[in-house]
Amino acid sequence: MKKLTILTTVMCVILQVNAQTLKTDTDSAAYALGVNTAKNLVQELETIGLSKDIFMKGFTEYNKSIIPYDKTEQIINNYFQKLQNEQNAKMQDLCLENAEFLRKNKENKDVVTLENGLQYKVVVKGKGATPSDNDKVKVHYKGSLIDGTVFDSSIERGQPAVFPVNALIPGFTQVLKLMPVGSTYIAYIPSELGYGMNDMGTIKPCSTLIFEIQLLSIVSESDNEQPAVTEDTTDSDSKKAKKQKKSK
Questions:
Q1: Is residue 206 situated within a structural domain?
Q2: How far is it, in rounded angstroms, from Cα 115 to Cα 98?
Q3: Do 54 and 147 reside in the same domain of the chain?
Q4: Do 42 and 144 have their domain in common?
Q5: For residue 211, which of 26, 92, 105, 106 sits 20 to 30 Å off, Cα-Cα?
Q6: Nearest to residue 213, comparing CAs of 194, 230, 195, 188?
Q7: CATH number assigned to the domain comprising residue 184
Q8: DSSP for 194-236?
């Protein structure tokens, strides 16, 4: 916001614009376009690593440039090609890193690897029904990257999520359909079954997605839910104590 204000102020000084000059709708539209352009320019310059101050110097000195005009296009093209090469190298490293993670994870005896590359580990095996494509489910989940970065978590929000099984990324949908209600699985979703080569901000191209998923219930059309039932690991002494307490 501060950078936007600075750039807008500079533009106004250069063009000798003030509020009194905005006498018509055309003036206001021209000024608004300048403000909008300045905001977009600031964001673009930050994204590609260019100096706003030097940009403004070139902007105001276009008719007396220290770089010949016929050379500017080549300089710009060379810079963006350099950025593209750096981005491609980073992406290649990221793809290799994620592929290596999945390769090593496959060797874990507790991890199941399917033919399409999806991996999962059963933490708790439920005894409820298994959802299908047409179901809605209530789940708690935490999504993270291989470096431990958490990008989304209903657990941290303290609010379970409800969504259609078939409205998710393919890997999430696939693992849900393997889980009986009451289960907790950890899914390791390769990028091909996640967001692929798309840059989703925190989730970069080639990213393996690690989801801890607790399937709480299947939500019916009438909002009646099939409750979670997990394997009973209660020992016999505890069971007897509960029965005695009930009889009292």
A1: yes
A2: 18
A3: no
A4: no
A5: 92
A6: 188
A7: 3.10.50.40
A8: TTTT--BTTB-TT--EEEEEEEEEEEPTTS-EE---B-----H
Burial class from Cβ neighbours inside 10 Å (0-12, 13-18, 19+) for residue 228 reads: buried
- Residue-by-residue DSSP string for 70-127: HHHHHHHHHHHHHHHHHHHHHHHHHHHHHHHHHHHHHT-TTEEE-TTS-EEEEEE-B-
One domain for residues 52 and 146: no
Q: How confident is the model at residue 117 (pLDDT cuts 50, 70, 90)?
A: very high
User: Mean pLDDT, to the nearest integer, of 62-85?
Assistant: 87
Choose the weakest-confidence range: 15-29, 49-63, 78-92, 216-230. 216-230
Distance CA 213, CA 154 (A): 10
This prediction has a pTM of 0.66
Question: Looking at the structure, do residues 53 and 118 belong to the same domain, yes or no?
Answer: no
State the total domains in the chain: 2
- The answer to whether the CB of 125 falls within 8 A of the CB of 230 is yes
Q: Is residue 232 part of a domain?
A: no
Unique residue bearing structure tokens 């940009």:
55
Structural domain harbouring 171: 113-226
Residue 129 and residue 201 in one domain = yes
